[in-house]
Amino acid sequence: MKLIAQKYVAVKMKALSLPVNVLVIIAIAIIVLLAVIVLFYSGYSSSQKITLDAAKSQGCHALVESNCILGPSTIYIKNFDVDKDGTVNTDKSPMADSDDNLMRLCTDYYMIAATAITDCKKLCNC
After folding, report:
1. Buried b vs exposed e over 42-56: b needs ≥16 C-beta within 10 Å?
2. 22 and 80: one domain?
3. What does the pLDDT read at residue 40?
4. Are residues 9 and 40 in the same domain?
5. pTM for this structure?
6. Low-confidence spans in the chain with pLDDT less than 50
7. Where are the strands (E) in the chain, listed by range?
C-alpha cells in the first residue's frame, strides 16, 4: 500500500511539474521580449544624432532659405549637440538648447571667431 501511495504521489508531482515548467518558460519569454522592446526604444528614440557635415548642411540650408538674412546664432541645429553639454534640440523641443546653433557650430568646429558672423555665412556660401 505504501508503494502504491508513493507512485501516486510521484505521478501527481510529475503532472504538476509540466505546468510549472511551462509557466517558467513563458515568464522568461516575456522578460526577454520586454528587454528587446526597451533596447529598441532606448536606442531609437534618444535623439537620432547626426554627423557634423549633416549638422552644417542643416544650418546652412536654413540660412540660405532665409536669403542669408538670419543671423547664424538664431538658426538652431537639431539632433546635434554643438556645445557638447548633453542636450540636443529635437523636433519635439526645437529650442531645448539655445547654444546648439549655427554660429556655435562655426566657432567650435570650423574655427571661425565668435564675432565673425560674415565668415560663418561664407561657410554656407552666403
Report:
1. eeeeebeebeeeebb
2. no
3. 78
4. yes
5. 0.58
6. 45-47
7. none
